[in-house]
Amino acid sequence: MSQELLDLIAEKINTLQGADTIEEAKLNFHKPMIILASQNWDLNTVNVLRTDEFLQFDFLSCVSAIDYEEHMEVIYNFYSTTLDHYLYVKVKTPRGNPVIISLEPVYKAADYMEREIYDLMGIDFTGHWNLKRILLPDEWEGHPLRKDYVTDKKALGLD
Amino acid sequence: MSELKTETMTLNMGPQHPSTHGVFRLKLEVDGEHIVNAEPVMGYLHRGTEKLAENFLYTQFIPYTDRLDYMNAMTNNYIYCSAIEELLEWEIPERAEYLRVITMELNRIASHLVWWGTYLLDIGAMSPFLYAFRDRETILDRLNEISGARMTFTYHRIGGVKWDAPDGWLAKVQETVKELHENIQEFHTLVTGNEIFQARTIGVGILSKEKVINWGLSGPIARGSGVNIDLRKTAPYCIYDRFDFDIPTEKEGDVYARYKVRVAEMFQSLRIIEQACEQIPEGEIITKKGKRIMMIKPPAGEVYRRVEASKGEIGVYAVSNGTNKPYRIKLRRPSFVNVSILQDLLKGESIQNLVAIFGSLDVVLGEVDA
């Protein structure tokens, strides 16, 4: 069941973006996972995932990001409330200039979750209506969840 | 007569405001009594929880999950532990799973009771608060007896739970369930049918089903708008598939519908506890490997796991690189996502409805700010 879904999603993305755009398609703990680069990830693809009659991923459950030191990844966890299935999409972006399209125009759920990633990880989401810091003060420097972030203990009153 | 020149005014509600039950600011743009624009401002309680996780052993992070949604700490403990267990692919002893369900459901009722009491206090009813806290105290006593803490339990551990139920505890829980059943029934006679309460809540703050799904809202808010999703039922985790219970849903999508869903959910939780107390077997409460906390090293990999907390869908994205410290822990906090709807929901509302709407979302700031 999950394998069929995975094949179907991979096929849809390949038709839209051209063959070999998907770096890896696998099952992660029995759920489909797609890994691709940020230049192959656009709103067109997102809209297909959301509206295709066999996919219907209408609920964006979680947006997370990981700093892998050589590159960064943004992970979208989709769920379909109508068809009851899941999908992980991992989008790779270079660490020097991490930019990825925002899903906020399609899924309002991405509004705060992407702002949080921008705030803590420093990934730029293009097309977001209001991309600014959300948890940290506006004048904060740096992005704490990056692996090379150095905590300024003096400024925090810890030293 | 020449036209009067009017302009809108910016009004700050908070960061210190009694109805937020925490530190939260709403930047309102008002035109007389009407809200033109509302911008939530948060982060006053940000503690860098996700960053802290990267410096600890897997087990050492559990106390930090207590402090996210401190009204519902058992479920927070559970989601974190179970995500790590999924990475480890461990089997959890039966008795531990039952104790987890009993404590999580007791905690869910306690959380809903706090909401019920404080929400009515916010909109002007003083006495329900006292009733709610009387009953919540009984639950906290039970949880204190098993975990040693009233709110920050750290009771669930990777591989099981920390303590077995003390002698006679299960019988006491059954006693409490009976008592709560009668007391919560009383809530209906006290409040649900009250004309003033209904006038303040029916038809206020309406959320459509489509909006709920698009904004990623979950929990009683979603179920109040006719979204029939409760992860305990739709994607059963732990041992929830063994119990007989319903998912209360309402289709109106207003504040009153959310109220009705939460009160009905308390009865369903009581049903689950009753069944769990009858079925619980004897046996181990934690796997042998779970006791050696230095040696908890999940194989490299990642997993996203989500469960139903009292506020909605709580999730953990756990990434392991094979060492005894997590590489990355991402927390999907339901209150953080749910609070975003205020930007949309408050537009065009009058100020007198603001507290009634905000309160109906049941937001906990410890969870919003992480």
Order of helices and strands of chain B: EEEHHHHHEEHHHHHHEEEHHHH
The biggest sheet of chain B, with number of strands, parallel, antiparallel or mixed sense and barrel status, is: 3 strands, antiparallel
Number of helices of chain B: 15
Number of domains of chain A: 1
Rounded average pLDDT of chain B: 91
Counting DSSP E segments of at least 2 residues, the number of strands of chain A comes to 7
Distance between the termini of chain A: 55 Å
Structural classification of chain A: alpha/beta
- The CATH class label of chain A is Alpha Beta
Fraction of helical residues of chain B: 40-55%
The greatest interface between two protein chains, and residues involved on each side, is:
A-B, 33 and 38 residues
Shape of chain A: elongated
Mean pLDDT of chain A: 89
Helix content of chain A: 10-25%
Query: What fraction of residues of chain A sit in β-strands?
Result: 25-35%
Major sheet of chain A: size, sense and barrel closure?
5 strands, mixed
